[in-house]
Amino acid sequence: MEPKTLDYETGRELEIDPKTSKRSDPDGRTVPGRKPFSRKSAIFPALFVIVAAGLVFWLRSLNHVSTDDTQVDGHIAPVSAKISGNISEVLVNENQAVKKGQVLVRIDPRDYQARVDQARAAVTVAMSQANGAKVGVPLVRETTQSGTSSAEAQLIGVQADYEKARVDYERSSNADISWARANVAAAQANYDRAQADLNRMKPLADKAEISRQQFDSYINAARVAESQLQAAQDKVTSAIQDAETKKAGMLAAQAHIAQARAGVKEAQANQQQVNVRAADAASAAANVGVARSNLAVADLNLSYTTITAPMDGVVTKKGVEVGQIVQPGQGLLMIVPLDDIWVTANFKETQLRDVHPGQKAEVKVDLAGKTYPGHVDSISSATGTRMSLLPPENATGNYVKVVQRIPVKIVLDTIPGGNTILRPGMNASATIFTK
């Protein structure tokens, strides 16, 4: 039996002559056949394709470097409580998009509102005390100045009285006493002369050589001289007593001077009350500042009861519920700004010879297989292993040279319609075009 084959062009069966390998149809007509398969004819085209592909790959590798050790990065902003309190409202859900300033969580504000009211009342009291102290300063200044002026005037008056008393005393102790003593001397002389005349006339009167009337005149003259002498002596005593009185007055005036000077010093010392009151006013003003600062702190703490979004983004890792009691610094949720996304590509150190900031790049994300254009922003200042928690120690004698990887930050170009796919931590592949 002759072997048969199928004609793929016509769909008919053909008979093959084993000796000549010719094909014929059922009618006996010869059908031209294909040339027999030759391995040599197939190897050369395959080698050409492989060489061409290798050449293309090599040429392309000269203009770019690639790595699949790449992750999407972005900011993750934690939102924490600044004060303690009871959560009264939670206004967002997990994975919800929020805008900057949008209210996220509210803490019960009643305790903090009461503290604000207390601080505001303290400000009012402090301001009242400060105003009273401020008004008291000029009052005390005027009062003390008036007292000082009065004391100084009184001192001047008593000094004048002292000068007058001193002059009167000096006049009494000198001129008046001297004049009185001079009168005593004159009266003593008159008295001595009258007594001498009387003594001379008495024998004559006894002998009746002079009349009795004449003798009586000498007696009267002696008596008058004696009276005048006694009066002059009384004048001396009176002048001495008057001088003592004037001296006592002078000493009293001198004491009044000392008293008035003490009054002046006291008045001047009272002027220090102005400084004291001024210090009290300054202290009261400072208390106003302290009270206002306390009010500002209370207002600030009250504002912390309303927690808002610090930026646009998406809520994630929400761990707060209504009724929960939170403490300062306790994390409530996180916000990821999806509009601020970049890529961290870990290239081998041997690949970064021609890489520098500003070069074009493209990132292909594993999730959607979509490619995003971008550019090299910066190259890390240290390798990944050096920045790890436990960097390798190569001085122990077990050193093995390993190609290190250096993180490269790639900033993506503006994504039309905004970012809806990229999330921090996603895997990707990065390519940097070096030429």
Low-confidence stretches: none
Order of helices and strands: EEEEHEEEEEHHHEEEEEEEEE
CATH architecture descriptor of the domain at 113-285: Orthogonal Bundle
CATH topology of the domain at 113-285: Helix Hairpins
Could you tell me the radius of gyration in angstroms? 65 Å
Please give the order of strands in the largest beta sheet: 5-14-17-16-15-18
Query: Which percent range fits the helix content?
Result: 40-55%
- Relative strand content: 15-25%
The CATH class label of the domain at 113-285 is: Mainly Alpha
Distance N terminus to C terminus? 69 Å
Discrete helix count: 4
For the record, what is the CATH homologous superfamily label of the domain at 113-285? Answer: Helix Hairpins
**How many beta-strand elements?**
18
User: How would you characterize the largest beta sheet?
Assistant: 6 strands, antiparallel, barrel
Secondary-structure-based class equals alpha+beta
What's the pLDDT, averaged over the residues? 81
